[in-house]
Every structure is written in structure tokens, then in C-alpha cells.
Amino acid sequence: MAKAPTVYDVAERAGVSIATVSFAFRRPEKVKESTRELVLTAARELGYVPSASARGLAHGRTRALGLLAFEYLLESADQPANSGASQPDSAPLVDPDSDEDFRHFPLYVDEVQRGVELECWRRGYALMVGGRGHANTETVLADIAGRVDGLAIFPNTVPAEVLRRIAWRIPVVEMSCKSDQDEINHVTVDNVGGMRALTEHLIVEHRLRNLAFVGDTAGSDQAERFQGFRAAVRAAGLRIPRKAIAHPGGVIRYADVIVGDLLARRALPEAFVCATDQEALALMDALARVGVRVPGDVAVTGFDGIAAGRIVRPILTTVRQPMELMGRAAVDILIDQLDRPDQPPVSRQLPVRIALQESCGCQPK
């Protein structure tokens, strides 16, 4: 293989200094147009491509960010379900080739990751993506962290102590939940306010009195949503559920078991207020299989605003969080911290909005 041309080769052919070649690519506004054209012509003739990594090393930057996401479609069915904010259950719901599997649509993590990708592209940063699949998480994280200027992660993907060590060296932002680690930046949404407003709608507008919260409340996002649900129920003077309806194996995987148990005990509520859209969609499927009508017999609501909820029938009533904006905000925080390394970690909360649709008894707007 022929040796790749260098900046020195381009400078020699164009008759300029290596500094001028560098400026022609990196700061073209600093170079006369005629000179820049000489440099670009020489580069084209030689087949020269400037090395972004070399430029980054010269300035102590890689101009790359990292993202540790969920490789949920690659995980095996015998792994335990993930616990965390709006994250997917690792077990397949149906045949992977089935058109009924709503995982084929963009989910919460996909939408947030898209925001990260778009903002990195807009700001001129490369993005390295790793996942918590079968590989050792700490090894994957160390490999990514060693190649990037900053790191964005989803919750519950990294042991706290490992994350703390990484944050001592590069900026880290955790998306979707607020942990107790002071070294970490956070991007969150108004989980409490959004779920409280949705629950109040069910109580005031639909006059529902027997409401059940569905979902694993171990993750901080779901715990906050349960808090908002309970606050609305308490304010209305209704019976406050002590705990959420859940299953050790995950609501998504065991929705049929949950529905069957409630029917057997004649304990079906008037409304299922679900912690995530995925749980709501799985529950709606399970209810349909046993002939329970939504919203005729029971209302169902979600939280997230994923695409699948907009095409099912009935259309899912949900709390929409700005998923793409969350990813963009994470990148903005990381770059800001790189430019101003002395500033303290930040926590940014984004607003949510209620999307009233058919599954609660409303007419779509």
C-alpha cells in the first residue's frame, strides 16, 4: 500500500507553509481565496485527507463524544429485564420478524440517541456509540472514554464507582434520571408534573375513581412518575395505592399474566396509568386478547411519546417528553463543559406535554 500523503507534501506542491495548509482546512476564512484554492488543488491531486484525530491531539481534543446506550435488540431472552428510566425490556415480546412487535419502531432510547447524533453532527463532533450488550460494560466504557472528550450515558448502564472515576477525567452527562453523584451532569424531564397532570385529567375530565399505576418504580424516572400519580390521587381525596402493579420479570413480558390475575380477582381498575408507553402498549395488547375494551371498559395511558403509540388503535394517550431535545441538550452540556472546564456540573430539566388521545376516552386532536 502506498504511503499516505502528508501535510508536508501538500505544502511543498502548493508552495506554501504547513501552517497555511492547516488553516486552509481548519480556518479557511483566515486564508486568501486564491491561496486556499492552491492548497485544495494540491490536496486533491495528492489524495490528501486531513486527519481529524491528529488535529485533535495537537489541541488536546479528539472532537469526539461518546454515548453508552442499550443494545436491547441484541440481548438474550434469558437475561433479566432492565430497570431504569423508560428503557426497553430485554426479552422479545413476539417473533422478531412479526409486524406486531412495536420494538421495530423508534423507542425512547432511539429518539434520545438521534438527538445526540444530530447535535454532534451540527457541532462538528464525531460520535462513538457503545452498548451494554454481552460485552463487559466496564471494558466497553473504558475503551470509549479513552477516545472521546466527553461521555453521555443512559441510566443504570454503568456502576456508580466506575462512572465516578470517568467523571474525574472527562465531562459526563447522565440522561433521563437524576442520581446522587455530584460529579455528574444530568438532563431530566418533569416526570412528577407530567404524570400528575395526566392523572388529574383522568380524575376530573373522565370522572374515574379507581386508578392503578403500572410499572417498575425502581428507576428514578418511574419513581417520580409514581410520585406524581399519587399526588393527584391524594389531592382528589381518592384511595392512594401503596404500590404499583408490576411483575418481577417485567410488565412488558408478563402483561398477560398481570391482566389475567386482575380479572381472576375481579380487581380490574377503571384506568391503568402506565410508567412508560411500552408498558401501556403491552397492556393494551393483553387486554384486547381477553376481550377487555380500551377505553370502553378501562382507560390506558403511557409516558414517553414513542412513535408506536401514535399508530395503534386506540391511539395512546401519553405524556410526551422531548426525547430528541434531551439528546441535543446532553451534547450541549458536554461541549459547554469542555469550553469552560471550571464550571460546576449542571442539572437541566426539560418540560413535557400531555397528548390526549383515544385510549383515555378523548377524541384525537
Structure description:
The protein is of the alpha/beta class and 365 residues long. The chain is 40% helix and 13% strand. It is built from 13 helices and eleven strands. It has helices at 7-14, 18-26, 33-46, 52-58, 108-123, 137-145, 160-167, 191-204, 220-235, 255-264, 277-289, 308-311, 323-339, and strands at residues 64-69, 126-131, 150-153, 172-175, 185-189, 211-214, 271-274, 299-301, 318-320, 347-350, 353-355. The protein has a six-stranded parallel sheet, sandwiched between helices. It has a three-stranded parallel sheet with strand order 6-7-8. The longest helix has 17 residues, at 323-339. The protein is elongated. The model is unreliable at 72-100 (pLDDT under 50).
- Tell the overall outline: elongated
* Main beta sheet: 6 strands, parallel
Q: How do the SSEs run, as a string of H and E?
A: HHHHEHEHEHEEHEHHEHEHEHEE
Strand order of the largest sheet: 2-1-3-4-5-10
Low-confidence stretches: 72-100
- What oligomeric arrangement do these chains adopt? single chain
**If you average the pLDDT, what whole number results?**
83
By DSSP, the count of extended strands is 11
Helix content, binned percent? 25-40%
Assess the beta-strand content as a share of residues. 5-15%
